[in-house]
Design a protein that fits this description.
The protein is of the alpha+beta class. The chain is built from twelve helices and 14 strands. Strands 6-5-9-8-7 form a five-stranded antiparallel sheet, sandwiched between helices. The chain has a five-stranded mixed sheet with strand order 10-11-12-14-13, with helices on one face.
Length: 524
């Protein structure tokens, strides 16, 4: 198909140049004819105004001076002939001396007092002819000057112009052919030698693929302009209006998300927490025939899946805690059974009362100080799970929180993530490993979590709240670098504050205003 297009282009070029050359030649010939007529008219007008010609014509030219003057003009090569005649048509000069004194075959044309231009089929051949009147002293027409320039002279100049036109057309045609060949090669390179039907088929397949998959897809060229974007990508990035051929930076504000999309920040399966969703981003460069043509970015919405994974991890932690408690209670039952077997009934009763009071006191103490039952249950579960990892979680004695304070779902997310981070940070620390949490509802909700681990380095304070940042190894099925970023988003939406203090020892403080409304999305 490309070869056919090239052939058609060349055919049109040849036809256009040929037709243009022919028309230009015709116009040039007509212009040249007109120029020779005007040249002849100039000579005729000059001769008609010559005093010697006028005087001799009035006197009847007894000295034959008119013929001599006309012959002198012809000898200069300016004209092929100069014929002077009176108003009756009697010739006083002519290239053929035998015709001098004889009458013109045609009427005298200038008796109307005007000049006349045309072509004359005379005895010397076809010529460009001009006739001018000779006027007497009173202004009346007393004769006529007829000047002719042979067509052979004009033809020689026309041939020169035609060759110039042919040369010009040849140059234009050569340049056009070369440009067509270069254009054809460029089209093949740009389209990767694909035929139009193949390009149309690929376009249909691309559109079907882009809008038929659940993942968000964005295509970028080497300059960072959007070449492809599907509806899912528009939804996740909140892109509205025309996006094609516009820079991606117009739609994505500065930050980690933009850096990942543009390739400024490399990585595979990078996690980004936006205001609305948790995204997993991959960016792959694209090259064809060894030439870079841009990149393809895929985005997966992992918001719901990540929430389910975290819930599952929480359930698994509770199951591990229950399994540990099962062993602990089994050991205690063995002690009770042994005491009963030995007949130490009083001692068995005292032992059972002691362990019952210890277990009950922890839960009752939390319920007395932490009114929201969900939050108290979360703290009790975290204490139990941390104990199995040899970490002690202490709730300060001055902690108080009423049931009408803030959104308990947001509190569950904040407290859960801060405690999990503190327990994980103590994994490699020497014993004793302690985490202290303080809750205060006197003015809004104040949460403080401290641990005796290494803490956050002073130069990392600004990075720990960025989504995807983590110094811990990833657990199977669980993405790191999300917890603190999620806490930061909840606090920001509630118009609260989150402060991170440098180590040694981890120290995080959160304050939420009392009027912070519930937001279900914050629990994701």
């Amino acid at each position: 198909m490309t070869a056919q297009i090239l052939i058609w282009m060349l055919s049109i070029l040849v036809l256009s140049v040929t037709l243009g050359g022919f028309l230009f030649t015709m116009v040039s010939n007509q212009t040249l004819d007109r120029q020779y007529q005007l040249r002849a008219l100039g000579i005729a007008a000059t001769v008609s105004q010559t005093p010697q010609i006028r005087t001799a014509l009035v006197a009847g030219d007894p000295q034959h001076s008119i013929a001599l003057l006309a012959t002198g003009i012809v000898d200069t090569g300016q004209a092929a002939y100069v014929v002077v005649s009176d108003r009756n048509g009697i010739r006083y000069s002519h290239p053929n001396p035998a015709l001098i004194g004889q009458k013109l075959e045609e009427p005298v044309a200038v008796l109307d007092g005007q000049t006349h231009l045309g072509f004359d089929e005379g005895s010397l051949g076809r010529s460009a002819n001009a006739k001018a009147p000779i006027r007497g002293a009173d202004g009346s027409v007393i004769g006529q000057v007829s000047v002719g320039i042979l067509e052979t002279t004009e033809h020689d100049e026309q041939v020169q112009e035609i060759w110039l036109i042919i040369g010009f057309c040849a140059v234009v045609l050569s340049l056009s052919v070369a440009a067509s060949l270069l254009l054809s090669r460029r089209i093949k390179r740009v389209t990767f030698a694909l035929e139009p039907a193949e390009i149309a088929s690929l376009l249909q397949e691309r559109e079907a693929l882009l809008h038929g998959i659940r993942e968000a897809v964005i295509g970028l060229d080497d300059d960072g302009r959007i070449t492809v974007i599907n509806e899912e990508a528009r939804r996740l990035l909140q892109v509205e209006g025309t996006a094609l051929e516009r820079p991606l930076t117009e739609f994505v504000p500065p930050g980690r998300l933009r850096d990942l999309l543009t390739g400024a920040l490399p990585g595979v399966d990078q996690v980004v927490l936006t205001e609305e969703a948790l995204l997993v981003i991959n960016r792959m460069p694209v090259a064809l025939s060894g030439r870079s043509i841009g990149s393809v970015v895929t985005l997966r919405d992992r918001t719901e899946i990540e929430a389910l994974v975290r819930d599952l991890r929480s359930v698994q932690g509770l199951m591990e805690a229950m399994r540990a408690l099962e062993h602990e209670y089994a050991n205690r039952l063995h002690v009770v059974d042994g005491l009963l077997e030995l007949g130490e009934i009083g001692q068995a009763r005292s032992y059972v009362s002691q362990i019952s009071a210890t277990s009950r006191s922890l839960g009752e103490g939390l319920r007395e100080r932490i009114a929201p039952p969900e939050l108290a249950a979360l703290l009790l579960a975290k204490i139990t799970v941390a104990a199995e990892r040899d970490v002690q979680i202490h709730v300060t004695e001055d902690s108080r929180l009423e049931p009408d304070h803030a959104d308990y779902q947001a509190l569950l997310t904040i407290v859960g993530n801060l405690l999990d981070n503190a327990v994980d940070a103590l994994a490699q620390s020497p014993r004793p490993r302690t985490v202290t949490i303080q809750l205060d509802g006197a003015d809004g909700v104040f949460i403080s979590v401290r641990d005796n681990g290494p803490g956050v380095p002073a130069d990392k304070i600004d990075q720990v709240l960025v989504d995807g940042y983590s110094t811990k190894e990833a657990r199977p099925g669980m993405r790191r670098g999300i917890g603190l970023a999620l806490v930061s988003r909840i606090v920001r939406r509630a118009a609260g504050t989150l402060d991170v203090f440098p180590g040694p020892g981890g120290h995080f403080e959160v304050w939420l205003p009392a009027d912070a409304g519930p937001n279900d999305e914050d629990t994701q």
